[in-house]
Design goal:
3 helices; 9 strands; 26% strand; globular
């Protein structure tokens, strides 16, 4: 009888031990699963945040460069859109114009061939503008170039002028545009025509 009681107690003890081990295993498995789930959620949230940050960075880089400027020939002139090329020179000009609209005197190349279809605007030397000049031999009406140091050159008629220029942008050529450039009045008391360059709204 004592032997049977001892066996029963031993069996109960063994079962209790095995059961507690099984429960401990389940609990740690649940904890591991919860930890894995938590880790997975955190990674997804971080990944979402990163993609959102990347998207915002991309958006910021896309919007940081202006793609056009507004140009008026004369104080009361009609505004025309100068479409900018995607290069450092055009970006620097747009950035500087963004801090302060430009009102620049207009000059003519009187001693060049085709001077009647081109004019240039001197930019104040305080503005630092990078350039990557290339040899240009022919120009279309409406094309705009940068010529170091600190000079914007506009062709308002087709021309064949060889020079080292950096491309800045272009105007959509129309007769209205050409007339606005040609008929821009000389500013009273100044002796020059002027051009206004503003950020496009």
């Amino acid at each position: 009888m004592k032997k049977n009681n001892l066996k029963t107690k031993s069996l109960i003890l063994t079962c209790t031990f095995v059961l507690s081990l099984a429960l401990t295993g389940c609990s740690s498995s649940d904890n591991k699963q919860e930890a894995d789930n938590h880790s997975s959620i955190t990674e997804n949230q971080n990944s979402g945040t990163q993609s959102s940050d990347n998207r915002n960075n991309t958006d910021n880089s896309n919007t940081s460069r202006a793609s056009s400027l507004e140009v008026c020939f004369g104080d009361d002139g009609t505004p025309f859109t100068l479409h900018l090329y995607d290069n450092e020179t055009a970006a620097a000009i747009a950035r500087h114009v963004g801090t302060s609209d430009w009102r620049l005197p207009i000059y003519h190349y009187d001693d060049y061939d085709n001077w009647e279809v081109m004019q240039y605007y001197d930019i104040p030397s305080r503005y630092d503008i990078p350039s990557s000049p290339e040899t240009i031999t022919s120009e279309k009406a409406g094309e705009v170039y940068y010529s170091a140091p600190n000079r914007i050159v506009l062709f308002y008629g087709d021309a064949e002028v060889t020079n080292e220029y950096t491309k800045v942008g272009y105007f959509d050529f129309t007769e209205e545009f050409q007339s606005a450039v040609k008929d821009n009045p000389v500013l009273t008391g100044w002796g020059n025509k002027i051009v206004l360059i503003n950020s496009a709204s």
